[in-house]
Predict the structure.
Amino acid sequence: MRQTTIPVRFLPVFVALTASLLAVPARTTHAQSAQLTSPEQFFGFQLGADRQIARWDKIVEYYQLLERQSPRLKVVNLGPSTQDNPFLLVFISSPANLARLEELRQINAKISDPRGVSEAEIERLVADGKAVVIQSMSLHATEIGGTQMAPELAWDLVSRNDAEAQRILDNVIFLEIPCFNPDGQIMVTDWYKKTLGTEYEGVNYPSLYHLYVGHDNNRDAFQTNMVESQYMAKIMFREWIPQAYVDHHHMGSYGARIYVPPYAEPIRPAADPLVWREMSWYGAHIAYKEEEEGLSGVINAAIYSGWGHFGFHWITPFHNIAGMLTESASARLATPIFIHPDQLRGGARGLPEYEAQTTFPDPWPGGWWHLRDIVERQKVSAWAVLDIAARNRETVLRNAYLKAKRQTERGAAGSPSAFVIPASQHDVLTAVTLVNKLMVQGIEVRQAKREFVQNGVVYGAGSYVVSMAQPKMGVIRWLLGRTFYPDNSYTRTGDSTPIRPYDMSGDVMAEFMGVRVDPVDGNVGAELATVTAPITPAGTVRKGDAGYILDGRLNASFQAVNLLLDRGIAVRRADTTVEGGIRAGDFFVPAGPESALVNIARQTGVDFAPFSGHADRPMHAVKRLRVGMYQRYYGGNIDEGWTRWTLEQFGFPYTTLVDADIKAGRLASKYDVIILPADAPSRITGIRGGSGGGRFGGRPEDYPPEYRSGIGRDGVAALKAFVDEGGTLLTFGEAGTLPIDEFELPIRNVVANLPPKEFWCPGSTLKVTFDNTNPLAYGMPEEGLAVFLAGSQAYEIAPTDRNERVQTLVTFKDRDLLQSGWLLGEQVIAKKATMASVEMGKGRVVLIGFRAQHRAQTHGTFKLVFNALLGR
Ligand SMILES: [Zn+2]
């Protein structure tokens, strides 16, 4: 127990409380030490109070204060967030445990990967180890409850001295992430304060609540593009592999008050079954504790299916972690919302009616709903997970061992036994990026020292081998293996209409990235060395008689080209393929300062290979184009944010265009290319009549007038004039409907408005061919994959007297289109184009009907975007 100096006037109370602890659960008995500052004292209000939000900078200060005041808490700043705010990890445990944190981490690491550890040693580790629990808050920044709850949870743990709290401190290492998205927390808090007391009070943030990715930060767990994701992956997938992880969210306002684990159907297979039982076990204890507290409206085993996207709480079961979420009904940020009883509704998975049922025995009756209600329910759920882990420390640890051991054995016995990433690839550097991303997940990757033959295929030296005989075989299976979303009565309604998966129907990273990965069987008979650190290839620089050549198949070559153009170094591009020499799309650099080229080669990994041919072959000068991209309000457009991020990674300059910029017209004098990211045309124009709304968007009239956006009819006319005068309008996905309809292009989207039973493709990888003789598809292979989502487009060309004005760049194969995911009605799109360029006036419209840069994950098709941004 913690030693504190207790002021004399508090002593009788303290003694009395201590005496009563054995009989009464002492939930509210905090040691009233003068040395511990409560959240209420520090913030000046109870966290969760109406119309109050504690801002992240103050919360950080509070944790630093608690760290100085309590030996039970240790604060680690994992580094700066995207916009340079501290990203905190807070360890909470007994002082004795915190003093041997590294030793306990190593014990946990052995239990989580017991390969080569004896059973006897495991027994000793289980006896000696502590249960590890991670809980993260407010990943989605408008879901503010978690971050407001976290300091109070920490305070309870450092200030309570009852047996229940002490048991948690002694048996659990709690890693609290008080805010998963510090930048967004600050944006939303400041926004809320701005709207407070106005008629717009409580409306959601009008832009992306993360500089680049907004709500999609939970779609980034397997590719970890954002630094926040990288911090979490380091903690959760490599350094500490917790036994339980809970991510606290909010949901809509009109159903259950809080969803707690486990998930509903369907679940994604290939995790150890124990992990699903654990989620039911934790969830039952959470629900039980909520009922014990008399908190109504708690539901479990409903709404959220176990097959979701590979966000943090959904990927963790395959890391052998009980990965769970809670979802609380939203208020209007910190403003309470009144809900009439007859507004409450079911209609969700596992909750068909808003009526009492086994998993929902106490429906909330309606009335005022406050942020404080959310904070209380979340805090009970967070505490319950710590409580049950503490009461069952040895069981939890032994099961962590069992999951890891059994998954390793399953991987060794199953098919495939391994995945091979061949050294020979269309884009070798993107294959290296894939390997690095696998290692971020804590997956063991080995590399062949020499050429080897496996299942009759010759693999070159340097090929990578990812064995399934390792604890994370479930993650490997879904990131590298072909995936089919279930199509059965779990995923169809009574009249067999398909039910939309929560997000994508697969997350096959290798397919998204266009990297060849072969499943193999049997023992891989190669001499292998474990890859121990991220691979950072340094490109070489060797000059030929004519200059240097850069491989146009590499995404990284575009980054190199941008760096060259930044320095004013001339770049040319080949327009024909010469057998045994250059390919159409390769970049040619006649000359440049050696030191600059060496730096660029090192930074990008791209080889500057010697070129000794005739430089007078068909080539064109590469010109940097002036790129503008449209940005709107109504919660922001996540595809726009991801596109911005992708362009920045590869060094493409761009200008963000808002309504006024577009409406002002004369666009062709300022821009060569204008990008409309994937979006509903009604959202772009602001002209009502299309779909829209929803919790993350809202209606125009919900927002202050200066946050209502839309280019209007003037903007549409300005975009048309831009194309007529020579500009390139580049559209992604559903944004293509705007020029198709408004400019009357001779193109029809054949999947528009089709009922789901006729055509259905919710986030799948489909087989396509690329016309890589067209500059827009330079550097692409002849065949590959495209990621097609609901809202993506497939094109039919209407007969005109100038059909040559339409060029098709990406076309679906004639049959068996589905590589991974879920596809109904493939005959609708077979042989149709999904990327087309349409000449109009002096310019053109380039329609990319699918997600070529989806979430910065689809590296396999990035070049289709990049090519459109490099001119001649
Ligand atoms: Zn959320």
User: Anything to note?
Assistant: DSSP finds 26 helices and 38 strands in the chain. The two ends are 73 Å apart (CA to CA). The longest strand covers residues 73-80. Residues 1-28, 690-696 have pLDDT under 50 and may be disordered.
